[in-house]
Each structure stands twice: as structure tokens, then as C-alpha cells.
């Protein structure tokens, strides 16, 4: 017989769960409340930093860069954001010379429009012409407000109140060298720029000003890069993505002009594309083997280009294109690439294509070539351009051939 001791009685006789409750540590706030509080503190700290902080570059990494100028000019080192890609358009403002500057000198601040980079350049007395030239160069690169129309997508080109046409205003015509007025003319167009900042920088660094640059509408900094190209006296074209035969397997990109859309829908898409940058002399087709073969689809687009004072350039990649016939019917300045230089993008094949271009220019009096912004292509064209004049050719921007075609 087993007797139950009194010491064990309380535990055995007590119902389950009826014993002493262990106190748990209770948090004053629930999980969602903690997250909300942390988020609020973060927003408060960022707001206070933005109000009271003294960082004009918003926390971007900075670098000190020193650049040497020519004789007679001194440049101070300045702190600027370290950015990837190219510098955009610069804004130049004259400022009084400080006490350390030579007597009669002038200090100008050169501010990069895309990166915010600032340089102070001290010009000695008598260099007012250099300041005026720099200011005039940047003024030419700026879009003319009177040639812009506000739309729901942004600003797009238009003909000015006095009949000013963007194709004329933004053109960069050249004067042929003495004795070369009747020499065969060649216009080169490099397309696909604006997406890769490195490719755009290489084209601007290596190609002479008469080479026309065509920008794709999808680059994040395409507007600034196009303005920089204008400031360096390149003519600029806007590449317009159009439907190829194998669409949508081969898709040029957002807002592509399609044969299945109504003219009104394509014009609306065209306005979106036009708003991506400013200062271009005209449109250049991109892909578009199906679209440019359809007069019903292409006609309204070319009429819209003509209505806005632009030219149209066929990149030569669509053998069935009716762009020439449509442009001729509406008296639109037009040009078509006679040779695509880098169908096979190797130095040897590019050189052979350049020889075909020379033959075409001698036979017709002028010729147009199109190429993509590939490193090998840019290098070969840059080397060829150095000797083009010695070989009897004049390198011209595309408007000098397209507008002449209209008059002829």
C-alpha cells in the first residue's frame, strides 16, 4: 500500500494549468507598430538632413579633378560628382575675378548640365573673345523655345512663328575647302547612340564634326548627350523605332510604330519619341522593314515630320521601303543610305564598304552611309575621315544632302 505524502499533495491534486503562472516580458509595441516607428524615424532623419545638410550633390560620391588649360588660362580644382558616362551640356556664367586673379582678368564658371560638375576658369585680359565663343557655342546647342510645342508627352519640335524650321535652325552646314566646291560629298550617320554612354563618348571623341549622330530614344541621358553633340557641331537625328517583319520576336522597343495601329495612335507614339530629346534636324528610321513598306502606315508619319519642319532619313536597311516615294510626294527633305558600312562589323569589311561608298559618291556626286556605334566601326571611320579630303571628297552633315535633294 502506497501512502501519498503531504508534500506531494499540492502538485498531484492541482488541476493542469491551475498552478502559478510565469510572468512573460511584454513588449510595449506590436511588430507592425515597431516597423512603422522605425520608418517614421528614418523619414524624419532624412528630412532633417535634407533641410540642414550642406551637400549640394545630394550625397553622391565626389572626386577632385585637375585639368590643364592652354597658355594664359588658370583653372582651379573643384569638387564634382563622380558620375558614370558622359558630361552633358555646360552652362557658362561669368563672374568677377577674385583677388588672386591677374588684373583685368575674368573668371567664368562652367557648370555641367547633367552631372552638376563645376569648373572655375580664369581668363586673362584680352580673352573676352574666348568667353564669347564659348557662350555662343553653348547657346547654339540649346533648343529654341519658339520651335517647341507642349504636348501631353512633353515638348516636341514645330515650325516657328516666322516659318523657322528645326531642320534649318539646328543644321551644322560646312563651307567646302577652296577648290572643293564641286567635289563629291559624303554624309556619314552613326546610329544607336545615347544608350551606351561609353559608345557615345567614343564617337564624340574620335569622329569629326561633319559626321551626323543618330540617337536612340531610350537612353536615360539621351537629351543631355544630344545637346553635347550639338555643342560640338554634330548634326543630330532622332531614331524612330518601326515595326520589322519579324515583330514581336524582334522588338525595337517601347512605343514602336506599328502597321496594326491607327494613324492617330502612331502619331501619338511618335510624339512620345519626339519628346525624348531636342535639337535634332530630323528623324531616322530604325528597323521598320514592314512599316516602311506600307504607304498607309508610313505616310502619316512622314507628313507629321514635314509638318514639324524636319527631314527624314532612311537607314537603308529595308529594301522594300517606300519612304523615297512618299517623301517625294509631299516635298519632304529626304535622304537614304546608299551603303550600310558594318553589315559585317569587322575592320576589313568596313574598309571594303567605305570603298563602295567612295565609288557611289564619284558616280552620283554625293552618297550617304549608315553605321552602328560599334568600336571597330567608329575606329575605321575615324581613320578614313582623316584622309577623305586628300582622296578628293568633302565630308558633310546629312542636312546638306537631304535638303538639296528636296530642291532638286
CATH domain class name of the largest domain:
Alpha Beta
Number of helices: 12
- Count of domains: 2
Low-confidence segments, ≥5 residues, pLDDT <50?
A: 1-9, 60-101
Order of helices and strands: HHEEEEEEHEEHEHEHEHEHEHEEHEHEH
Shape: globular
What is the CATH homologous superfamily assignment of the largest domain? Glycoside hydrolase/deacetylase
CATH architecture of the largest domain: Alpha-Beta Barrel
Structural class: alpha/beta
- Give the strand tally: 17
State which percent range the strand residues make up.
15-25%
Helix content: 25-40%
Computed over alpha carbons, the radius of gyration is 32 Å
**Span of the ends, CA to CA:** 128 Å
Give the topology:
Blueprint: H1 9-13, H2 31-52, E1 62-65, E2 74-76, E3 78-81, E4 90-95, E5 106-112, E6 118-123, H3 128-141, E7 148-151, E8 154-157, H4 166-169, E9 185-193, H5 197-206, E10 212-215, H6 222-231, E11 236-242, H7 263-274, E12 282-287, H8 295-307, E13 311-314, H9 323-329, E14 334-336, E15 339-340, H10 347-364, E16 366-372, H11 375-386, E17 394-395, H12 399-407
Parallel strand pairs: 9-10, 9-16, 9-17, 10-11, 11-12, 12-13, 13-14, 15-16
Antiparallel strand pairs: 1-3, 2-6, 4-5, 5-6, 7-8
Please characterize this protein's 3D structure:
With 408 residues, this protein is α/β, with parallel strands linked by helices. It has 2 domains: 72-141; 147-407, TIM Barrel (Alpha-Beta Barrel). The chain is built from 12 helices and 17 strands. It has helices at residues 9-13, 31-52, 128-141, 166-169, 197-206, 222-231, 263-274, 295-307, 323-329, 347-364, 375-386, 399-407; strands spanning 62-65, 74-76, 78-81, 90-95, 106-112, 118-123, 148-151, 154-157, 185-193, 212-215, 236-242, 282-287, 311-314, 334-336, 339-340, 366-372, 394-395. Strands 9, 10, 11, 12, 13, 14, 15, 16 and 17 form a 9-stranded parallel β-sheet that branches. A 4-stranded antiparallel β-sheet has the order 2-6-5-4, covered by helices on one side. Helix 5 (197-206) runs parallel beside helix 11 (375-386), helix 7 crosses helix 8 and helix 10 (347-364) packs across helix 11. The radius of gyration is 32 Å and the shape is globular. The N and C termini lie far apart (128 Å). The relative contact order is 0.11. The model is unreliable at 1-9 and 60-101 (pLDDT under 50).
